[in-house]
Amino acid sequence: MLALRLARGAHPLVQLRRLLVAAASAGTGFLLLSALGYAMAHPDAPTGSVLRLLWCLAPVAASVHLAVAVARTDPGTRPRPGLAAVGLGPGRLMAVSAVTTALSTTLGSTLALLVFLHLRGDLTGIPFDGAATAFLAADQPLPLPAALTLLLLVPLAASLASALALRPRTVVRGRSARPGTATATGVPAVPGTPGDPAPVTAGTGPDADHPELAPDPRPLPPPLPAPGGLPWGTAVVAAGLAVESYASRSGAAPGSDLTSRFAGSPAGVLGGWALTAIGLALAGPAITHVCGWLLQAVRPGALRLLAGRGLQGEARRIGRPLGVVCAVASGAYAMATVYAGARPSIGPLSTLGALLVAGCAVATLFTAALETKQARADTTAALLRLGAPASVLRNAALLRAGVLLAVFGPLTWLVAELAAMPLAR
Questions:
Q1: Which residue among 96, 247, 256, 303 is the one 20 to 30 A from 43 at the CA level?
Q2: pTM surpassing 0.85?
């Protein structure tokens, strides 16, 4: 009930993001049901049915990724000081966020089921009823348990991933624990113990010349270490390209040719592309952090220093969505290279799947950028109070975007060329 109240009273932009999650879930659910319909219409081609189901894993992963990004930016489930007093601590808010995500994705899955039944001809009296009876095996009864299992895949995965992403994390303060707060051992810190900072008395400390300024008892958080996923990401990308090259030399399985110009097995191509996407997602935060470091190199000014430090602080939030967008763009470029000079024979379901993956990747990137903007709102407000011109902040944002485009653009082209070479043979 609380999740429904929060969902109903949210801002229109928040509702729009939830509708995007519902739309992604609806498209993915329709693809899963279409794979079920193909399996029912072609019982003598189990290999093709399994491969069509495997192709649906990419839209499922993209939809779950978007749902997690939207859950992280939901202001209704953000911890507030007064909510813990009424029993809505971080754990309860995590459960509310998971339920909200489940509601959005379940709405999309329900819409997918209605459209599927309408196209099969099971729901009459509406335009275009029974428009795909031959393709969706309308002459056979729909196995309801199998359909519900496929439709529940996205809501369960999205809600579980949202709960894991928003789970409460224990902050270990160590020697900087405040009095009355829990230390690493879970025991409240008592003044005079090793876990408590030394008391600051009047006439001592950095504010001795200004006794009217009380010292801030909150310790500064330690700086985050640099992301270290670049070696692992590079290795996984190389493994994905090797799998694609090996799959292009093998023969295609019967009934599995979803795109006619692919010379090899679609399962191998899908596996190689998935490894490439995972590798780029792993390496994305480290590459973004390196971009921030390059901005500050060789005697930086105030603008470059602000842009570089901001980019390093945002590396973990926007690095992975940038890597996923890079993988999607490289896959689209590789497909365009393979289809160069020929008319592609991609069906409507393949087009729907490609649009779903690309749309979810771009929407996730914009959502991560919004989360980053919300996270640095206090810093931006402090800079404006100190007299920093708003044009400097805009120029720093443009400089960060330009550096990311200058680095990830050639990287996308390189990965796409390496992926397209074995497929174009």
A1: 247
A2: no
